[in-house]
Known about the structure:
mainly alpha; 5 helices; flat; single chain; 82% helix; three-stranded mixed β-sheet
Amino acid sequence: MKKIVLILGVALGVLACNKTETNSKEFKTAYIDTAEIIEKYEKFKDEDAKFNVKSEELGRPLEAKVRAFQAEAQSFRQNAQAKGPQWAQQKGAELQQREQQLGIEQNALIQQLQQEGAVLKDSLISEVKKFIKDYGKKKGYDYIYGTGDAATILYAKDGYDITKDVLKELNDKYNASKGDEKAATKEEAKK
Length: 191
């Protein structure tokens, strides 16, 4: 009995493998290492260099303020004992307030740069995806897979897109459950 089950399992496995092989031969597929594209695409490199220059330019005024603050803090440490505790307390509070303000400025600059960097990266990735899609159509690919940091399908023929069908069923199911909830609420209200 165990031998029959084992033989049947092996036979089904072989048939399943054969069926998969014939289906995979029907499609023209390829893959792209997205991490390598990001690393080696010249436009990515150029835009990254421009962004780094812009970051440095925007950061220079803040760096100058930080250096001035550090010099003033060093002077404070040297003069604190000589000028007395009252002066040290007042000057220390002023320095602390300036340090907090510099921290706020630094955080704002970092946030601005992160937002600008994200927008730039998104636009470049969209551009690359569009290129890959056009390339796939031109070369007759059914699927182009992505590997690397973002492993996704980068291109597929429109006929293989079942998004609308799945979305319709999800929405129908959701709307039906909403209708059931409304009916249940009306039933409870009648009681």
